[in-house]
């Protein structure tokens, strides 16, 4: 567990170690099957996998990277508009987000397991069944790592979490645990998931009121709470930017006074949260059909 946090070279060596990842996954599967998700060894295994999934997309061996990105290249090469990726139009961004991974292997080995749906479901199972805060945080953090970035892997993992494995109820429950770091990691994961336009309505329906309820009445005074507030604002920005319906959901959940109060804080120490709230307000105002409701 300590070695897995030693940096890129350490992660690379451990990912390449024959049988190591498979053994960690095997142990966790056994612990879940035996209804023992709270033992220390399971926590250690999940924390190792969490660390090994960090910057995975960037650090993948060339052979894996080529197979994962091949379909994406084919789609971009077949596109009739040569400048579409330069302009980053919404249509093309959605196409990028919808690019699937190559067909999953039924029996993944080694580094292939790190983004496989089997392990994604294991993380979600631990989130639902473990009461150990470090295990919860590491499971959420692994999913956060896997959904970071804009390539086909993060978006495929996000769709597995939300649509194929029905992971939102478990993640939603983590928004209400007592441990601040667990809540912060759950919100960071939702922020990553909410970047996928295909999932935004599902996410808003399941967790938008919970996110609004988590917003403080003013900028919080601790670093962790401030980071959590910042992530909530950006998640709400993603969910409401293109959806008047979701913006109305935020309004119905009494989120607007909170966002205004956070945006008005002028302390440099907490400017990230204030800036995020201001960006959210600006986006909300773009829904002209809601102006009269805002004014009320």
UniProtKB/TrEMBL annotation:
Q: Where is the composition biased (Basic and acidic residues)?
A: 94-107
- Name where it's found: Cell junction
- Keyword Metal-binding present in the record's keywords: the answer is no
List the GO terms this entry assigns under cellular component, sorted alphabetically: adherens junction; cytoplasm; intercalated disc; nucleus; plasma membrane
| Principal location | other
Family under the similarity heading: Belongs to the beta-catenin family.
Question: What's the name of the protein?
Answer: PKP2 protein
Organism field: Zosterops hypoxanthus
Q: What is the lineage of its organism?
A: Eukaryota, Metazoa, Chordata, Craniata, Vertebrata
User: Corresponding gene?
Assistant: Pkp2
């Amino acid at each position: 567990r300590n070695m897995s946090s030693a940096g890129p070279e350490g992660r690379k060596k451990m990912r390449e170690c024959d049988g190591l990842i498979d053994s960690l996954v095997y142990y966790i599967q056994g612990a879940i099957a035996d209804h023992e998700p709270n033992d220390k060894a399971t926590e250690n295994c999940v924390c190792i996998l969490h660390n090994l999934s960090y910057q995975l997309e960037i650090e993948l061996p060339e052979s894996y990277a080529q197979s994962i990105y091949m379909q994406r290249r084919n789609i971009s090469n077949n596109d009739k508009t040569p400048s579409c990726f330069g302009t980053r139009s919404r249509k093309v961004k959605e196409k990028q987000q919808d690019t699937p991974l190559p067909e999953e292997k039924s029996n993944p080995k080694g580094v292939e397991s790190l983004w496989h749906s089997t392990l994604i479901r294991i993380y979600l199972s631990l989130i639902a069944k473990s009461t150990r805060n470090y295990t919860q945080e590491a499971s959420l953090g692994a999913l956060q790592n896997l959904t970071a970035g804009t390539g086909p892997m993060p978006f495929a993992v996000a769709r597995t979490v939300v649509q194929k494995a029905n992971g939102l109820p478990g993640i939603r429950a983590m928004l209400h645990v007592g441990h601040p770091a667990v809540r912060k990691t759950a919100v960071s994961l939702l922020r990553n998931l909410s970047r996928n336009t295909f999932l935004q309505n599902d996410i808003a329906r399941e967790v938008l009121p919970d996110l609004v309820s988590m917003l403080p009445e003013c900028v919080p005074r601790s670093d962790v709470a401030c980071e959590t507030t910042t992530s909530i604002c950006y998640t709400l920005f993603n969910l409401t930017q293109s959806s008047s319906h979701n913006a109305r959901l935020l309004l119905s959940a009494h989120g607007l006074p909170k966002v205004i109060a956070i945006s008005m804080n002028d302390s440099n120490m907490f400017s990230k949260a204030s800036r995020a709230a201001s960006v959210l307000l600006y986006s909300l105002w773009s829904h002209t059909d809601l102006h009269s409701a805002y004014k009320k």
